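Could you help me review a protein record that somebody else here produced? My question to you is simply how this chain folds and whether the tokens agree. Thanks in advance; the entry in question is below:
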Amino acid sequence: MLLFVTFIQTIFHYSFSQTTQNINVLLINEENNALAEKSFEVAKEYVRRNPSLGLAVDPIIVVGNRTDAKAFLENVCRKYTDMVSGKKPPHVVLDFTTTGVGSETIKSFTSALGLPTISGSFGQEGDLRQWRGLNSNQTQYLLQVMPPADLLPELIRAIIIKQDITNAAVLFDDFFVMDHKYKSLLFNIPTRHLITPVNSFSKDDIKTQLQSLRELGITNFFVIGSLPTIKKVLNAANEKEYFGRKTAWFALTLDKGNISCQCKNATIVLMQPTPDISSKDRLEKLKTNYNMNGEPEMISAFYFDLSLRAFLAIKSLLDSGKWPKSMEYMGCDDFDGKNTPTRMIDLLTAFKEIKEAPTYAPFFMPNGGAMNGRSYLEFTTNLSAVTIRDGVLIGTKSLGKWISGFSNALNLTNVYMTNYSAPLAYKIVTALQTPFVMKDEQAPKGFKGYCIDLMDEISQILKFDYEISLSPDGKFGAIDESGNWNGIIKELMEKRADIGLSSLSVMAEREDVVDFTIPYYDLVGLAILMKVPQKTSSLFKFLTVLEDDVWFSILAAYFFVSFFMWVFEKWSPYSYRNNRELYKDDDEKREFTLTECLSFCMTSLTPQGGGVAPKNLSGRILVVTWWLFGFTMVSSYCANLAAFLSVSRMDTPIESLDGLSKQYKIQYAPVKQSPTMLYFERMANIESMFYEIWKEMSLNDSLSDVERAGLDVLEYPVSKKYTKMWNAMIEAGMPNTEQEALARVEASKSSQEGFAWITDASDVRLRHIDLGPNCGPRHEEVVIVVVVGTSGQRDPISKNKSRASRYLVMTNCDLQKAGNEFSKKPYAIAVQTGSPLKDQFDRVILKLSNDRVLEALKEKWWNDNPEAAQCEKVDESYGVSIQNIGGVFIVTFVAISLVCLTVGLEHWWHIFKKRTVVTSVSQMQPETKTSKLLFTKESDLKISRSNLEI
């Protein structure tokens, strides 16, 4: 009897302890997420068929369009109002929307009305915009668990980090939502990447898409989506022949089964989730007994577990008395933006404490803080290498596993996984700058120069390959007024390149957006390129002292005076010629014949003097007049000759920026939109700001008399050098290109008049100019740039022959770098912000510097260049050069030659005049013949053989 009573009591207690809790659920779903609703129905059926759970679920289901937020909200509010008015307000809202404005609207609805909600929407921490500003109470009942499709792309991040992949393209289909992944997926990883949906309309569209990615230098492809989507992409890649050692393919799917394609020879790394071993039996039972056959099965299991855990969590709160006894529900129309009710519902703890066995994999929920964006299904993904030949799968090799999470690393069982990724290669963007980077079609990479040799040395040490291309606009990188960058810096910021390589200056604004390695090249500043001061030289410079008409006048006067001197000598009764007896006892006797007059007038112009003057008074007056004329001409000639030979010394060369700013004959400017222009513009702006500050201080009425006295100056105390120079540059007109600037310098008349180009010192040292297709015969010209330092020594600079690429050295030895460089900055290699390449390159550059490799490269490209040109050394002495006075030696040599000829003619004339012509020996008297033969001079005996025969 006692046993019977005990049995009845036990049955009675058990019946009351298993009181069924009715749970009102508002399920909100999207039109294209039918799998979630089906899993919810399975969970409801599971509860119904398992009375031991003590649950009864009464759901209201609302399905809306994610893009039509207004209609969606109206439908939800209407259903919600019906539940409240029917005395069945929702205990919990199951939000199965995925993303978009519809999902954001539901988040706003639940947070505004204070409805306990469990969401399965896509989004990491901070991505749910309407739930970002939740208070401490709201974080207890507004909960989100990330769906597996949201977490699976994190495997791409793990692979890229493990394999050190430098470029990647992520292609996804409609099943995955990647809107919030564009910035977060590869955040702080120096990998050029593109995340783009698959153009699944046709195979041709996909082939075009893949071709565009390959043209951007992408070699690693990640395809995430269903197996049919993966098949389409692989078939398109096969037709484009994108399989091989230079490309790597990764397929990530939630579907079960093997991938297939019509690939001739391809190896793809396949990544597929798999259920936990402990959950496989439960999953199979649900599929068999409850018809949970939705695919992908992991997604179906996720929504089933999320629904069931939500039911049990609400029941736990109701059973424990932690659910508010009189919970008020506010209607949609009652909300005014500020009257959100305060709920003291700890749904978070109840949800975490549920011990129900998982169907696929357990939920991971952080111990502290909010769980939104940080909780997910902790599943396992298998990695395997699938080999396909001629469309047939011929082998599968296991590579390892990955446990889902935000920072979980790969657990590889195959150490050779590197064989399944593209070779380590970096994309380099550059800008041409001789001799740092130059185009060369014959070079392996299409470029040559100092920087290319440096990168070759670095790549050999770090064991990587690289592709190099020019920046789209050919610029190094500058920021405009809107904060937008161009050139190399822009390519690095937008992750279209890994490395920026050229003569790239380290600047503060550039360091804010990219990282620089330690400098690989000495400090290089700005310099002034202008004409070399030219010294005019001429062998007959002594003749150019007087103009031609003066020389002709002197010559005419010379002959005129000589002629009249001869006339006066001939007709004057007091001349020596007409009074020989009168002057027979004089020691100085001189008859002024015409020849003697010419000689006298000539020698009178020399310091030696003319000698004995004429005896007649008229002749003497003429001589004195001639002497006065000659003294005047000779003095004038000597004075002008000295001035001509020393006039170049009076030219003051420009040796600094100050010297350039203080003169007005030479125009000067940098190239428009160049870093040099930016430097002067900023300096002028700074001076302008200083002026405004000083003016504001001076005009400040609040200053005391003592303070005002301290500012009492007669003029503005700060130099306005750069402001004046900036205005002068604008007035001069800045060249649009380097070619234009160089042409203006070459067209300058002299170093004192023309144009000076202010530019980077490396531009001055060596120049390569693309003349364009219409240059004509100028392609054959070779001109050289010369750098002149303060010492006056000229450094030989390299030149390049004209080539088919139409690059030509368009400068010459008439150009110089005036003075010293200023505003010096080092050259360094630029990388993306946070890139590990910075530390690696720093170590290698230090090593190359210590090994003197950098010094050897400088010798190669500047001093030992086989194409280097030698310019003549400028003679800086102040003496008279042979180039200016050498004509005197020529005149002397010509005169000596004429004298020698004259001596010969005199000797011949003397012999001809003294010689007696003999016609017949028989005509002579015997005694005459004898005497003539006996007393004839030796010279007269030289008779021709023909005369002797006669």
Summary: The longest helix spans residues 882-914. Residues 1-17, 766-811, 927-950 have pLDDT under 50 and may be disordered. The two ends are 196 Å apart (CA to CA). The chain is about 40% helix and 15% strand.
